[in-house]
Amino acid sequence: MQEENNQQPAPKNAALSISRLVAYIVYLIAVFIEVILLLRVVLLLFSANPLTPFVNFVYNTSNYFMAPFRGIFPPHAAEFSGGYLDTSALFAALVYLILVAAIQSVMMYLERRR
Question: d(Cα 35, Cα 31) in Å, to the nearest integer?
Answer without folding.
Answer: 6
